[in-house]
C-alpha cells in the first residue's frame, strides 16, 4: 500500500484506490515549462469511465453482481478426466481394430494359415459341443474370447491371493508303507495282489470276491465289515487290487472283459472251485457288471452297494440321462466329460490332487456331495486312519495311467448294456422247420441272461438303467 492520499493525515490508500490511481496516471513526462493538461473530472463511482467500475464494477469478466463463479471440485475434474480417457481409448481400440482388419485381408492365402487351417478345423469340430452351453443369441466367435479372458483373469487373481495365504496349514505327506501283499501270477505273467478275510478255504460256505472302487485298493474290502460276522456265516472274503493299483501289475490294454477274466483267474488260483459271489461298491460295481456279462457260469450271485452305471449309455433317453447327471456335482460332471472326450487332460488334475503325495479331503478328491451323516463319519479318527492307508496303497505306484484307464472305462462303451444281462427267452429262430419242431417236439422254455440273484442297495435313488434292469423276471433284491 502507498502512504498518503487526499485529505492527508497519513491515511493509507486501499488497493482499489491504488489501482485506480495507476490508471489515472498515464506516466507521460512533459519538458520543463510545459504545463501538464488538467486531469479530467473523475466520474462518479459506478458511472461510465470510472476505472473502478470498469475493473470492479458490475459485469466485469462476465461476473454477475461482482461474484466470481464456484470452481470445479476435484471429483468433477477426475470424472471429466476419466470420461476423456475412455473416449480416447475407445477411439484407439477402433483404430487398432481397423488396422487388424486391414492386415488380415488376404491372410487366408499365407503359408502359416494354410498349414494351420486343417488342425484348427479339427480342434474346432471337437470343441463345437461347448457351444450348446452358450445363450442362443450369442455369437461363439465373440463369446468365447470373453470367456477365456475372464477365466485367465480369475486364475491370475487366485494365484495372487494364494500367494498371500501364509497362515494356511500345509497338508501332510501320504505315508506309503513297504510292500507286504500276497500275490498270485496270472496266465499272461502279470501279478495280482489280494487280501483274504474270514474263514479258511476248507471251512467256507460262501466265497466272496470284491473289486475295489476308484481311488481305493484291496485294503478297503467292505468298509465297516466285522470279522465276527464273516466267521458266523462262513464267508471267505477276497479283495484284490485292480491292474496298476496297489501292488498289482498294470495291464497293457485292459477293458471290462479282461477285468472279468482277471477275477476268474484269481478265483482259480486261490482254489475257489465252487461258484462265488461278487461284491461291487460304488465305481467298483462296473467290474461286477462285467462279471455278470462275461463269466456268468461261475457266479453264485452279485451284491452291489450304490452301484455306478454308464452315464453315456446309448439305451437311455435324454430325459433319463438328465436325471442321472443332475445328482452329481459340477466337478464330477467335468471329470466325466474329460474322461469321455479329453482323457489326456486327466493326469494334470490327478497330479494336483491325490497323486500329489499329500493328504487331502475325500469329498474334494472324489467330487462328492456329502450329507451330514457322511461328514460326521469323516471326522472320526478311526475312519481317517483307514481312509489314509487305503488311498496311500492305491497310489503306491505313482502312475496316473491306471486311474485314467479306470475313468475311461466308466464312461466309454462297455461292450454291453444292462438290457443284455436281463433274463429273457432264448431265441429259437424263424422258419417253417422251427415251427414244425415246436409242434411235434415241444421243449421246455429256455432263458438267457444271468439267472442268479442280484442284490442292489441304494440309499434313495435308482438310475433309469437300474430300474429298467430290476423289473424283469429275475431273482433280485434291493433296499
UniProtKB/TrEMBL annotation:
Q: Where is the AB hydrolase-1 domain?
A: 227-329
For this protein, the record's Pfam families field holds:
Abhydrolase_1
Biased composition, Low complexity: where in the chain? 31-46
**Where are the stretches annotated Disordered?**
28-50
User: Which protein are we looking at?
Assistant: Uncharacterized protein LOC105044642 isoform X2
Q: Which organism is it from?
A: Elaeis guineensis var. tenera
The gene coding this protein: LOC105044642
